Amino acid sequence: MKFLKRWDQELLSILRIVAAFMFTLHGTQKIFGFPIDARYAWDLWTLSPGAAGMLEIVLGPLLLVGLFTRPAAFVLSGLMAFAYFIAHAPQSFYPIANGGENAVLYCFVFLYFAAAGGGKWSLDRLRKS
User: Fold this and answer.
1) More confident residue, 93 or 50
2) Are 37 and 84 in contact (CB under 8 A)?
3) d(Cα 91, Cα 58) in Å, to the nearest integer?
4) Domain range spanning residue 71?
5) Secondary structure of residue 22 in the 3-state scheme
6) Transmembrane segments in this chain: where (predicted)?
7) How far apart are CA 31 and CA 53, in angstroms?
8) If we measure between CA atoms, which residue out of 19, 26, 84, 13 comes closest to residue 55?
């Protein structure tokens, strides 16, 4: 366990980078139809894909590079909680049954980043130096 403890800040950064990259892809799909077309037409004035897509495209890359990590992650955590309770929870109590497992997982991963910060490899760490 000492080995893992020694690498905890690097692993936090890797988790942040991978999660933010995967999350940003949801935004690029909704707004730009990349890497695959969205299932619905884009409209800025809708919750999803409009407002949610814009938050994913703006805050996702900030999280990716670790800039303003805590506030960006906090907002995204709230976005995912909101998405879960608005879109998924009414269908079923169980996330696996209502398709909301990604929303739940992102919500809690982002909440962790809001508390823990961006890790060793983040622009926030460089700004404080």
Assistant:
1) 93
2) no
3) 29
4) 2-128
5) helix
6) 12-32, 44-65, 72-91, 103-123
7) 6
8) 26
